[in-house]
Design a protein that fits this description.
This protein is α+β, with helices and mostly antiparallel strands. It folds into 2 domains: 140 residues, Muramoyl-pentapeptide Carboxypeptidase, domain 2 (2-Layer Sandwich); 49 residues, no CATH class. It has 7 helices and 10 strands. The strands form 3 sheets. Strands 1, 2, 3, 4 and 5 form a 5-stranded antiparallel β-sheet that branches. The N and C termini lie far apart (42 Å). Bound molecules: zinc ion.
């Protein structure tokens, strides 16, 4: 499946942010996979083992972060067509760190350059805590912020910035706004202070 709204709520935001950030650097990317069903993971695992083709996954259901809605894969478009030229993926991968994403291209074994995931999750812990992905997804419902009325659109000099409506006010991600305005942004975690200069 390739719908962004099937991902963990935090990852939906980060996925859209990666698309925007890549675009701002001149790269057009599409999302080729988000949440992976049991059938999809079983089919992938069979490839290169009991079915023809090259091995594409090391893990069985539900041991992939895709099965938990915690990962997505991208493809880079060049003149409207998908390219697998790794030089583009190597340019996009390092953008992930600023968004708080883990890039599969930075892994030491089974390097996976089109792959991005939400850091801080361990599949053994997920299985122990939730048993199955369906139960984990149920826990996402609590993530919705009270008073959140949905996404909004902010246009700054023709550039669209993602925003949201909370209790009648429009909130825009300050980093995206600062970048659009050409300002330098720094953040001090100790004092939770954002400085624009
Ligand atoms: Zn992946």
């Amino acid at each position: 499946m390739r719908e962004i709204n099937l991902l963990h709520p935090d990852l939906q935001t980060k996925c859209n942010r990666l698309i925007d950030l890549a675009k701002s650097k001149g790269h057009n990317i599409i999302i080729t996979q988000t949440l992976r069903s049991k059938q999809e993971q079983d089919d992938m695992y069979a490839q290169g083992r009991t079915k023809p083709g090259k091995i594409v996954t090391e893990v069985k259901y539900p041991r992939s972060m895709h099965c938990w809605g915690l990962a997505f894969d991208i493809a880079v478009l060049l003149n409207g067509l998908v390219t697998w030229d790794t030089k583009f993926y190597d340019q996009i991968g390092p953008l992930a760190a600023a968004i708080g994403l883990e890039w599969g291209g930075s892994w030491k074994s089974f390097v996976d350059k089109p792959h991005y995931q939400l850091p801080g999750y361990d599949v053994d812990d997920l299985i122990k805590k939730y048993g199955a992905p369906e139960k984990f997804m149920k826990s996402w419902e609590g993530i919705n912020v009270p008073g959140f009325e949905g996404p909004a659109k902010v246009i700054f000099k023709g550039k669209e910035l993602s925003a949201g409506l909370l209790e009648g006010r429009t909130y825009v991600e300050i980093r995206a706004l600062a970048e659009a305005m050409g300002l330098k942004i720094s953040y001090d975690n100790a004092t939770k202070t954002v400085t624009l200069s």
